Amino acid sequence: MINNTEILEYTLKNQLGMVVKVINYGGTITEISVPDRKGKLGNVILGFDSLEDYRDENNPYLGCFIGRYANRIGSASFKIDGHEYHLTQNNNGSTLHGGNEGFHRKIWTVEILSDSSLMLRYDSPHGDEGFPGILTTQILMTLGSDNSIRMDYQATTDAPTPVNLTNHIYFNLSHGYSPTILEHKLTIAADSITTVDDLLIPTGDYTPVTNTPFDFTKPKNIGLELQQVSGGYDHNFVLNKKSNELLLAATVADPTSGRKLELFTTEPGLQFYSGNFLDGSLTGKSRTAYVKHSGFCLEPQHFPDSPNKPHFPNTILKPGETYRQTSVFRFSVE
Ligand code: BGC
User: So what's the pLDDT on residue 37?
Assistant: First the structure.
């Protein structure tokens, strides 16, 4: 029980046997089991065995939904119509992933719609972590008959406020056979990244990926040039798309299991995070120690610090408007 609410795990299945488990704490996805090339089901995401571990302050956002603002807002402040708002500082003076008690620590209302779909709802009060306006949020999660998980996000507000929602699943497509994801092959449809300073706050510039370790325009092992990136990959890729259509953003293939993941999104950006801060101190499911690069995250999003970068795509939601985001994670084998 948390705040008099029982924490429950819900199971979704599709006709092919794909299994996805979700808890109402943080809307956290605790398991995604999909077949390997031999047809054997295996869980391909990092997770914990107990609720206590998910609630622990050292939980690095395994599998949860992130809000109100995915990634960083520099100096934990922004202005709307000349009024300055101050947020919780939880990352070197900035706000990361919505603050200490962001959406990842909230109790969501879950409505089961069918064997393969459910709705998550959370109403964030005015002043939540410093954000203005009541934000009414819902996420429809649907398993497809093509072994996909579709996430349709919607939010409305009663006062102008920044919104940038995403999901923070850590994937390891090998189902634990490879302790790290360094041999997974990644492709990202992005010709540039948003340049960041030492604290990972965008400077406002863009860096072309050509001739840099950030060039994933063709399939490349995640580990191949990772050592050349100080701290590892933790960057927002500017997707090569001119509209908010649902388009392919990234593909990841694991040669060991044959599993392949494709991510489609309506978002303009994608945070690729190579699990750099995992250090072996967390023990996950089946007593696995999560060492550095045990998993990777693909976080479809608007660009970090957009509320302070007027030339980035807009993240301010106004009353009367509806925020929408759709992302699809599709699994197959090759
Ligand atoms: C961020 C990382 C952060 C991690 C937390 C990622 O989305 O980009 O900087 O450390 O989340 O697990």
Answer: 97
- To test the pocket of ligand 1, the residue of 28, 65, 277 to mutate (highest count of ligand atoms within 8 Å of its CB) is 277
Report which of 45, 94, 92 is spatially closest to residue 71, judged by C-alpha positions: 94
Of 97, 175, 299, 302, which one is the catalytic site residue?
299
Ligand 1 pocket residues where CB is under 6 Å: 60-61, 71, 200, 234, 271, 273, 277, 297, 299
Ligand 1 atom closest to the CA of 60, numbered from 1: 12
Q: In CATH, what number does 9-333 get?
A: 2.70.98.10
Tokens for 7, please give them. 């924490």
In percent, how much of the chain has pLDDT > 70?
Answer: 100
What pLDDT score does 1 carry? 82
Residues 134-144, mean pLDDT to the nearest whole number = 98
271 CA distance to ligand 1 middle (Å): 9
> What is the structure's pLDDT at 2?
84
Is the bond preceding 330 in cis, omega lying within 30 degrees of 0? Answer: no
Residue 59: which pLDDT band, with cuts at 50, 70 and 90?
Answer: very high
